[in-house]
Design brief:
Largest sheet: 5 strands, parallel
Number of strands: 5
Order of helices and strands: EHEHEHEHEH
Shape: globular
Strand order of the largest sheet: 2-1-3-4-5
């Protein structure tokens, strides 16, 4: 885990945000929480986050819509989705859109930490590839 890892947690349920915040802070992460995708997009943290953990179903903009929008804008930030309704078709959509993990609520904390480890590793690989392309001009 990198000390500089900033995790953004998006969920319209304040209790879920608090629980994930407490879990991640207890592991040494810097955590920023948001009640909606729109709130996240308005913040400076939307470009300075190492990983997004987002609820699939939020009012106005869903987590999958947020991921799709961020990918269209060129962001490679890793995403982990959580949902109280772990439907297989939604899971497939989330993974096709580029999510690293898809967890049903309630989830086991060790599952979340394993997903976060994978997401941060994927994010590091992506940043390395982008930096390499910038240096070689490809």
């Amino acid at each position: 885990m990198s000390v500089s890892s900033v995790i953004s947690v998006l969920d319209d349920d304040p209790y879920v945000r608090a629980a994930i915040n407490n879990l991640l802070e207890s592991r040494g992460y810097t955590v920023h929480t948001f009640g909606s995708a729109e709130e996240f997009l308005r913040s400076a943290d939307s470009t300075d986050t190492s990983c997004v953990i987002a609820d699939v179903q939020m009012p106005l903009m869903t987590g999958i819509d947020l991921l799709t929008q961020m990918r269209a804008q060129g962001s490679a930030t890793p995403f982990i989705f959580i949902t109280a309704f772990p439907d297989e078709s939604v899971r497939v959509r989330a993974l096709k859109a580029g999510a690293v993990c898809f967890l049903g609520k309630p989830f086991v904390p060790t599952d979340m930490m394993q997903c976060l480890d994978r997401a941060l590793a994927a994010g590091s690989e992506t940043k390395g590839m982008i930096a390499g392309r910038e240096q070689t001009g490809r």
